[in-house]
Amino acid sequence: MEKELSILLSKLQGIAQTGKQFGKDIFDQERYEELSIVAKELTHLLYPELPERELMIFFDEDEGYATPKVDIRAVVFNQEGKLLLVKEKSDDSWALPGGWADIGYSPKEVAEKEVMEETGLKVKAERLVAVLDKAKHAYPSSLTYVYKFFIRCQPIGQKIKPGIETSEVGYFTLEEIYALKLSKARAIKQNYEMLFHDYQHEKNEMICD
């Protein structure tokens, strides 16, 4: 139920944000502003522990036509068929290298940049494995509506080391990944199964919700 409510709140805020940008007159602007306030109050009730800063980012800092945010995840296998993961300092959990898409960078460039920053490894982004709608899969509930891009990358070199935001890096088999403490907001077990299946069969097919 919580996940369904968070999706509805995202839609409600999206309607209010888009309406405030494209409303035809002062009356439209007032109604959409009221709608945004109601959405914010409902969010306070659903997530009383949510910091005010996160609420401000979600409700006040974005503007214009509301669109999903894009999360880029780099998929890097070594010669032994193991997958590169990083341990995030923020939640002490393991995940694929990656992060939010940056303005001024293409999706492939973001994947390459994130791997370098988080693991010290230079890679060449090759192809898009999947685009998933986060709300349609078993991720934890989130206010932000997110599309997740998984991009296969070819390693150039072998040396890996933690970055500013990571405490450990390593290559793992699927069975080893099952035993790790995973950052479920970044990738869930089904994602790893999908990625290993793609690697082992090399179908070069893109999965898209």
TrEMBL record:
InterPro entries (UniProt xref): NUDIX_hydrolase-like_dom_sf (IPR015797), NUDIX_hydrolase_dom (IPR000086), UDP-X_N (IPR059176)
Any Pfam family matching the protein: NUDIX
Domain of life: Bacteria
Coiled-coil annotated spans: none
PROSITE patterns found in the cross-reference section: NUDIX
Nudix hydrolase domain boundaries: 67-195
Family: Belongs to the Nudix hydrolase family.
Protein's UniProt name: ADP-ribose pyrophosphatase
Organism: Enterococcus wangshanyuanii
